[in-house]
Amino acid sequence: MLFVSLFSAFAHISVVGHMTSIGTLLAFVIVCAGIMIMRRTHPDIPRPFKTPLVPLVPILGILVCAAMIYSLGPDNWLRLVVWLAIGQAIYFAHSRFHSKLRLKKE
Predict the structure, then answer these.
(1) Whose CB among 14, 48, 52, 72 lies 3.0–4.6 Å from 76's, allowing a Cys bridge?
(2) pLDDT at 79 over 70
(3) Does some domain include residue 47?
(4) Is residue 49 part of a domain?
(5) Structural domain span for residue 45
(6) CB within 8 A of 29, min separation 6: which ones?
(7) Mean pLDDT, to the nearest integer, of 70-88?
(8) Does any domain span residue 1?
(9) Omega into 55 within 30° of 0, i.e. cis?
């Protein structure tokens, strides 16, 4: 929270806006892909909320979001990759010391 708030305070507003957009669009792509994967791998689970016209709607969602991501330009792609790498490093560093599986082995 502190890192993001400091970054937002000192970065140019268009950079912050583009980073927010590319992150949100990437999340939508992942959700659309997840819908198709879950429908195929777990067809029996109850679904209180249903997506119509699967796989057409998720495929269109992926294509539209990918087109908007593409339009944001290479600078934003680089920032996205760096941001994802930082997030992965934090995630795995935290899990290394707080894993319930690791604690069971000790």
Answers:
(1) 72
(2) yes
(3) yes
(4) yes
(5) 8-105
(6) 61, 62, 65, 66, 69
(7) 95
(8) no
(9) yes
